[in-house]
């Protein structure tokens, strides 16, 4: 009976008939469940990992609540932008949450992540809190970059989150540099450099990939392919939209980016590979519900039917919800409670962020240079100090 | 023998001896300075330190005890002049080597810096000494390896990125401007970028337009970046060491034509200040501000000017961003006339910014308009004669000073 349940993980209706009336089917939160991913992995010059992913009820519930939090945060950011509390550029990640959450499940805080401007949820995944995120979006002092970075510049150094970058593709050489430092310091950690299908056509990516492959760096290049580079569909921008194959001599893996478990499996696999062999490319097949940014309606280059179709069939949160219900890990009412709780958390965080003041005028000049310039300098006889700068 | 050397040391304005930078300790005298008697000018220098040797010399007086000049064997076993002589590229290498030895997080990245030894031999021998992980040969991919250098600097490594020619770093302009200069600010101070970006630039000997670029004019408005230009072996080593130790991103501009300059530099370790200008020749009549190769054209012109009776004060500004307005200001307050001699082009060069900065800060002290001699706003031609006309020549400097001091 349990086996039948496992194989029909994606359909929820039949599973409910098999559930006993009282209590849950599984008594402990740490029971290992083996769940099949929705789609098999496709490999380029590499044997893909197994479709069966090990997970636990606890992990599935955490996926659900984390993704629900991220989704709610992005929707709230949408409203704040329309209320003109967030200005400038605001790129929302809703629809792509599975990539952030699945990746975190496979790695530690010693592993580095660097991404482009669609970074709010990646920041949360790395341990950032809502108040810091909303304050930064609204340009307040409590923001993670003291209000001086904005939507595209979230960073969290203690969690090895290297940002947060506005120029498309420029973060990939930076990420390979972080991987270089990890190899230099013999840390045994890897770096995930995320970029989009639009950035996949940047030359510097291939340059960095070449150097990483030459030097065997533990760099994992992750293409979050949401199929549109702002308004340009992938088939109009890339002669070869099989981004996982674009590394040529570097192996690649194509992953269903809307399935958090598949993402987790792929990242775990990639980490083991990269530590032993050097760079690998992961292509996450994902989708964004919003337009490229808040100034893009997102419907001029794709149909509303397409968007709602993906939402119905492939939504990452719904997928995990169905899994949880199918395995009777929690009743539907508990999941609804989680969503309500998350909504409240987001509202509270926004209220708190609104209370944070704007940065002081003196903040304009702080952190341009590292204070003191770091150098004490003296003449050749070491007796005369020419300058010790404050 | 020893006294002749001493005479040379004390009187030469043209060899770039950093006169008030270094106290060369007590000058040691050999008792056998007899040759001066024959030359007519008895040069007796009192020194505070004890002179090696016995007898009357112990009282600090130099006695001419021999009729014939003796080899200076009685001098201390170290050679009679302190320090060691080397070429500018060797000085850069020495600075780099010392810093790499001192700090294991310093690494070098660039094209042909490792096995080949560097296209200007600045990194020669370092790859054999430190290995392939610390002296890294990169493919020809400036944009990405500069980006990788910056990424590794974010984690705490201290890379020294070499552009084989500064002009090639234009390909990495995005990385240098957005990521290098601005990350400390946009991350709210979380990430420091202690990177050094260095390479030769400037107009060489008929290298053509694309290999004669002066990138200091393009980089000067990037916030968060520090820029310095070296011009002598002494300041090359000192600035290299300071740049590596600095927590800020520093761009070190070298010049293609200055790599073979020879100078005697101290044996002891020294680090120079990144923000200080160098007083090359103190004077009274006019302040000439210059840097890098143009310093030598200025000093050549200074010889002519001195013969004509002028007394120019020559300052090598060294720090291109930020300007050392303290030293410059003090000089302007003394002379009231300024001439800027630079190799950048007239439009948007360092001279243009410096002129602006001086007008903003020292307008009241000026007796004459600020003159700025720069290269012409043209791509550097290949033909030798045309190339010479592109850059500022000593005759033009002399004419400019004469005009200023009228």
Automatic annotation (TrEMBL), chain A:
It comes from Rhynchospora pubera. SUPFAM superfamilies: Thiamin diphosphate-binding fold (THDP-binding). The lineage of its organism: Eukaryota, Viridiplantae, Streptophyta, Embryophyta, Tracheophyta. Residues 302-312 have a biased composition (Basic and acidic residues). The keyword Oxidoreductase applies. Residues 293-312 are annotated as: Disordered. Keywords: Oxidoreductase, Pyruvate, Thiamine pyrophosphate. Tetramer of 2 alpha and 2 beta subunits. This is Pyruvate dehydrogenase E1 component subunit alpha. The pyruvate dehydrogenase complex catalyzes the overall conversion of pyruvate to acetyl-CoA and CO(2). It contains multiple copies of three enzymatic components: pyruvate dehydrogenase (E1), dihydrolipoamide acetyltransferase (E2) and lipoamide dehydrogenase (E3).
TrEMBL record, chain B:
Pfam families: Transket_pyr, Transketolase_C. It is an enzyme of class 1 (oxidoreductase). InterPro entries: THDP-binding, Transketo_C/PFOR_II, Transketolase-like_Pyr-bd, Transketolase_C. Keywords: Chloroplast, Metal-binding, Oxidoreductase, Plastid, Potassium, Pyruvate, Thiamine pyrophosphate, Transit peptide. Residues 86-261 form the Transketolase-like pyrimidine-binding domain. GO terms for cellular component: chloroplast. It catalyses: N(6)-[(R)-lipoyl]-L-lysyl-[protein] + pyruvate + H(+) = N(6)-[(R)-S(8)-acetyldihydrolipoyl]-L-lysyl-[protein] + CO2. Gene3D superfamilies: 3.40.50.920, 3.40.50.970. It is found in: Plastid, Chloroplast. SUPFAM superfamilies: Thiamin diphosphate-binding fold (THDP-binding), TK C-terminal domain-like. Its EC number is 1.2.4.1. GO terms for molecular function: metal ion binding; pyruvate dehydrogenase (acetyl-transferring) activity. CDD domains: TPP_PYR_E1-PDHc-beta_like. Its cofactor is thiamine diphosphate. SMART domains: Transket_pyr. Tetramer of 2 alpha and 2 beta subunits. The pyruvate dehydrogenase complex catalyzes the overall conversion of pyruvate to acetyl-CoA and CO(2). It contains multiple copies of three enzymatic components: pyruvate dehydrogenase (E1), dihydrolipoamide acetyltransferase (E2) and lipoamide dehydrogenase (E3). NCBIfam families: PRK09212.1. This is pyruvate dehydrogenase (acetyl-transferring). It comes from Rhynchospora pubera.
């Amino acid at each position: 009976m349990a086996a039948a349940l496992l194989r029909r993980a994606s359909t929820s209706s039949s599973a409910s008939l098999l559930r006993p009336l009282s209590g849950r089917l599984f008594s402990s939160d740490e029971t290992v469940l083996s769940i099949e991913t929705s789609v098999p992995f496709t490999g380029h010059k590499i044997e893909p990992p197994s479709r069966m992913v090990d997970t636990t009820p606890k992990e599935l519930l955490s996926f659900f609540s984390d993704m629900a939090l991220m989704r709610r945060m992005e929707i709230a950011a949408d409203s704040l932008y329309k209320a003109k509390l967030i200005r400038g550029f605001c790129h929302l990640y809703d629809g792509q949450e599975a990539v952030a959450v699945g990746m975190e499940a496979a790695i530690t805080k010693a592993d580095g992540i660097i991404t482009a401007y669609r970074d709010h949820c990646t920041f949360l995944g790395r341990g950032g809190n809502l108040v810091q995120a909303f304050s930064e979006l609204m340009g307040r002092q409590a923001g993670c970059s003291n209000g001086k970075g904005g939507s595209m510049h979230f960073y969290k150094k203690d969690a090895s989150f290297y940002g947060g970058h506005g120029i498309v593709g420029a973060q990939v050489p930076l990420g390979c540099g972080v991987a270089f430092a990890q190899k230099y310091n013999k840390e045994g950690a890897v770096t995930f450099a995320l970029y989009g299908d639009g950035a996949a056509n940047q030359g510097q990516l291939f340059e960095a990939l070449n150097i990483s492959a030459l030097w065997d760096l533990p760099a994992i290049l992750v293409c979050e392919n949401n199929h549109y580079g702002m308004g340009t569909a992938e088939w109009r921008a890339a002669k070869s939209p099989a981004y996982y194959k674009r590394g040529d001599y570097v192996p690649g893996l194509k992953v269903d980016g809307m399935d958090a478990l598949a993402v987790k499996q792929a990242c775990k696999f990639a980490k083991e590979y990269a530590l032993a062999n050097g760079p690998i490319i992961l292509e996450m097949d994902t989708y964004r519900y919003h337009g490229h940014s808040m100034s893009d309606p997102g419907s001029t280059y794709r149909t509303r039917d397409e968007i709602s179709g993906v939402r119905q069939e492939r939504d990452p949160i719904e997928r995990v919800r169905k899994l949880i219900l199918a395995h009777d890990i929690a009743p539907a009412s508990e999941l609804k409670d989680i969503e309500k709780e998350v909504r409240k958390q987001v509202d509270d965080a926004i209220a708190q962020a609104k209370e944070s003041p704007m940065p002081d005028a003196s903040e304009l000049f702080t952190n341009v240079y590292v204070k003191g310039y770091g150098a004490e300098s003296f003449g050749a006889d070491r007796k005369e100090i020419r300058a010790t700068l404050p | 023998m020893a006294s002749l050397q001493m005479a040379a040391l004390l009187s030469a304005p043209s060899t770039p001896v950093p006169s008030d930078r270094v106290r060369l300790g007590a000058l040691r005298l050999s008792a056998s300075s007899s040759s001066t008697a024959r030359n007519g000018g008895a040069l007796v220098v009192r020194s505070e330190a004890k002179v090696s040797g016995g007898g009357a010399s112990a009282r600090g007086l130099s006695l001419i005890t021999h009729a014939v000049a003796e080899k200076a064997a009685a001098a201390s076993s170290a050679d009679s002049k302190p320090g060691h002589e080397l070429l500018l590229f060797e000085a850069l290498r020495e600075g780099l080597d010392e810093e790499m030895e001192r700090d294991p997080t310093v690494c070098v990245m660039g094209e042909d810096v490792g096995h080949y030894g560097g296209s200007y031999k600045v990194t020669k021998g370092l790859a054999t000494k430190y290995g392939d992980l610390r002296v890294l040969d990169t493919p020809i991919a400036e944009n990405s390896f500069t980006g990788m250098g910056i990424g590794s600097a974010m984690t705490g490594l201290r890379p020294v990125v070499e552009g084989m020619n500064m002009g090639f770093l234009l390909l990495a302009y995005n990385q240098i401007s957005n990521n290098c200069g601005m990350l400390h600010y946009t991350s709210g101070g979380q990430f420091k970028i202690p990177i050094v970006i260095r390479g030769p630039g400037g107009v060489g000997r008929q290298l053509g337009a694309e290999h004669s670029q002066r990138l200091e004019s393009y980089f000067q408005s990037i916030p968060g970046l520090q820029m310095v230009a070296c011009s002598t072996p002494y300041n090359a080593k000192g600035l290299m060491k300071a740049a590596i130790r600095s927590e800020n991103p520093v761009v070190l501009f070298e010049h293609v034509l200055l790599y073979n300059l020879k100078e005697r530099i101290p044996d002891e370790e020294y680090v120079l200040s990144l923000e200080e200008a160098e007083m090359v020749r103190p004077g009274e009549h006019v302040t000439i501000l210059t840097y890098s190769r143009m310093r030598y054209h200025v000093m050549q012109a200074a010889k002519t000017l001195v013969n004509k009776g002028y007394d120019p004060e020559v300052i090598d500004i060294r720090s291109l961003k930020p300007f050392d307005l303290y030293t410059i200001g003090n000089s302007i307050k003394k002379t009231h006339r300024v001439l800027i001699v630079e190799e950048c082009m007239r439009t948007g060069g360092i001279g243009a910014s410096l002129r602006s900065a001086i007008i903003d800060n020292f307008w009241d002290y000026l007796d004459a308009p600020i003159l700025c001699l720069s290269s012409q706003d043209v791509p550097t031609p290949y033909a030798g004669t045309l190339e010479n006309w592109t850059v500022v020549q000593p005759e033009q400097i002399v004419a400019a000073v004469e005009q200023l001091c009228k």
